Every structure is written in structure tokens, then in C-alpha cells.
Amino acid sequence: MNLSPNIWLRDNCQCSTCVHPATRQRLLHTFQIPQDIAIDQFEDAGDSIKVKWSDGHESQYTQDFLSLALANSKQMTGVRQGTVEPELWGARIKDNPPIAHYDNAMGNDGGSILPVLSNIRRYGFSYIDYTPASPQATEELLSKIAFIRETHYGAFYDFTADLASKDTAYTNIALDAHTDTTYFSDPAGLQAFHLLSHTDGEGGASLLVDGFKVARELQKEDPEAYNILATVNVHAHASGNDGISIQPYRGFPVFQHDPDSGLLVQVRWNNSDRARIELPVDQVKKWYDAARKWDALLKKKENEYWEQLTPGRVLIFDNWRVLHGRSAFTGKRRICGGYINRDDWISKYKILQFGQEEVLKHLATN
Fold it and tell me: What gap in Å lies between CA 337 and CA 194, rounded to an integer?
């Protein structure tokens, strides 16, 4: 029976001698397994397979484990990344946006934050209404999901348009749709905004665009342009503050895909923070032509969802999918919020959605 190369099967024995039962970390020293490891005895026990190895070790593999091992890796992203079929949207989402309630999200039930995360996983964003209009309540809400990510701007932020940090976010000018922190090798996973107050002025409406929807439109209308934005690396930087110039260790394309499933998993788009385009100068026009088409689609009215945020309504969105911007404003706006790492929020979503046992079943097979 040739389920898999013997070395792989022996290396993935799930017994407590080979895998720590609490941490699920490997205890077996892989490279002490003989290169010519062989099966001495084999028994089909119905719901499991028992194997005695030539090195004397005995293993037992459940049928579930073997089924997962033999499955096409493209089937595994559902648990590995908590992948769901995205609900694509445009301006009409204004009529029925995904909303959760603060009191429910902050409940003592460990899964109380799941409706918020489910909204974000499916739609790319969620409002949390009836949140007390205070930094403390907002920070507690974000911490219910995962650790707040600290950057050169600090951790949890609470700011006005005073240019305290040298970034256009700290001004009152209009901002085109963009994703944040493209200058990090690992951009922020979630971003949150809570408008605490807006006095002596007007404007400042928030803009959201579903990057996955617009990317699909571009792929349908101009596959070549899509391919260029999915393959040509672009560099970025954050250099506005003294003593800081943050740049990722390499350039990344605007569209990034899961190598197993081929699904689009990330949009990185921030024209303000863009640096080098990784093409010879005599070839770079093709990137500009493709990016121009992408930019035009982002600005189509039917793709732009505008909403005026208000105190008590927190907006949390997937920074790998949803682009955000704002209109210019006058007066004084106070906004708080923060970033959360992608791995942290996906971990919380997976555990709440599938359960710890189901997630751990996939560790050796995905």
C-alpha cells in the first residue's frame, strides 16, 4: 500500500512520543529516521491503519488523517486560512451593510466576537454599532479579536489632523482608496476606525471599495492588465518621520494569490507610498497602463461605498481586501483605532468557526 513515501508517513506519526499532546509540536527527530525506513507490519483496523516500522516504532493513523493527506491541497485552504466564498459588493452595500452590536460582541461567551469576524471574512468589513464613544471601549473591542499591532505610529491610536505623525492620514485632505502599510513586508491584517467627535466643520466621509470585486472586474475586462499587476513587483516606503525609512525586504505585486488554491488573497495598493516599479525603464509603461485601468475601476461610482462615520459605530475592515479613503473635511475630527496582524485574526476566526480539534487535524496535511 503506497499511501505516501514511507519517510513522510513515519515523520507524521501522531502518537504522544512523536508529537507533544498539548502543544502539537514535533518531538520526533526527523533526521534520525533511517533513510530506508520500511513498513514491517500493516493492519487495517477499519477506522484506522496500524503500522509497525522497521525501526521498531508503532504508529496508528486514522482514516480522517489519511483522507486529508491524500486530498488535493487546493481543498485545504478552507481550514488553513479560514477561506470562505467572498460576498462581492459595490456602492449598493450601503442599503444593507454587515453590522454587529457591541454588547453581543463583548459577551462572556468565547465565540461572541465570531459574528464580527464572519462579517469581515465574507464581506471584508463589519460595523460594530452601539460602541461607547471612548478610546477605552474601542481598544477593548479590538483586543477581543487579538493583539493590537504596534508600529512606528504607536499601537492603539487616538489622533486629530495635527500632523503629529508625518503622514497624510494626519491631515484634513481627501485620500483616494488605498490599503495601509504596503511599506511593511507583512501589511496590517485588520484596521479599525472609530470617529469619536467632529466639531466646527463638515466633510470627512469614509470611502470603502471592495478590492476583490474590482480585481475580478479587471481580470474579466483585461486579463493582460490583471496579469501584469499580479506579477510585477512594486516597492513601497514610509519615510516621513525623522530617523525612519521603512521598506519591505522585497517588492510585491498589487495582487497576490494563494499558491495552492490560486485564490486572490491580498491587494496591496497605495499610490502615495509607492516607490520603485521592478521593471526596466523601457518596459515600465505596461505597468502604468495596467495600473491606470485598475485605478479607473476603483473610482467607478458603482464601486465606491461612501458612509459618514458617527460616534458609537466602529468600522473594522480587512486591509488585505478592502481599500479605504475619505473626503476632505473642515473642523476638528478625533479618530481612534488600531491595526491587528492578519495571522492573529485569521487564527481567532478559524478556532471559533471550526473548533480547535478540527484545525489541529489539518496541521500535517495542508
Answer: 6
Query: For residue 46, with 0-12 CB atoms within 10 Å meaning exposed, 13-18 middle and 19 or more buried, which class applies?
Result: exposed
Alpha carbons 365 and 204: distance in angstroms, whole number = 48
Nearest residue to 14 (alpha-carbon basis) of 54, 45, 60, 51: 60
Domain with residues 6-70, CATH architecture: 2-Layer Sandwich (3.30)
According to the model, what pLDDT value does residue 164 have? Answer: 53
Angle at 63 (CA atoms; ends 23, 364), nearest 5 degrees: 35
Q: Looking at beta carbons, which pairs linking 103-108 to residues 24 or more positions away fall under 8 Å?
A: 103/130, 105/141, 105/144, 106/140, 106/141, 106/144
pLDDT at 365: 64
Determine the pLDDT at residue 254: 98
For 147-175, what is each residue's pLDDT tens digit? 999 999 899 999 876 545 445 556 788 99
3-state secondary structure of 185: coil
Query: DSSP letters along 216-229, please?
Result: HHHHHH-HHHHHHH
pLDDT for res 168? 54
pLDDT at 295: 98
The pLDDT score that the predictor gives to residue 71 is: 67
Partners of 199 in the beta sheet? 332
Q: How do the residues of the chain divide into helix, strand and coil, expressed in percent and rounded to 5? A: 35, 25, 40
Sequence ranges of the domains in the chain: 6-70, 91-354
- Protein fold of 91-354: Double-stranded beta-helix (3.60.130)
DSSP string of 131-155?
--SSHHHHHHHHHHHSPEEPBTTBS
CB 309 within 8 A of CB 125: no
Residue linked to cell 504508529 = 59
pLDDT of residue 67: 81
Which residues 6+ apart lie within 8 Å of 317 measured at CB?
A: 120, 124, 125, 126, 190, 191, 192, 208, 324
Q: Which residues of the chain have pLDDT under 50?
A: 1-3, 163, 165-166
Separation of alpha carbons 60 and 339, rounded Å: 43
Q: Strand, helix or coil at 9?
A: helix
> What is residue 1's predicted lDDT score, i.e. its pLDDT?
43
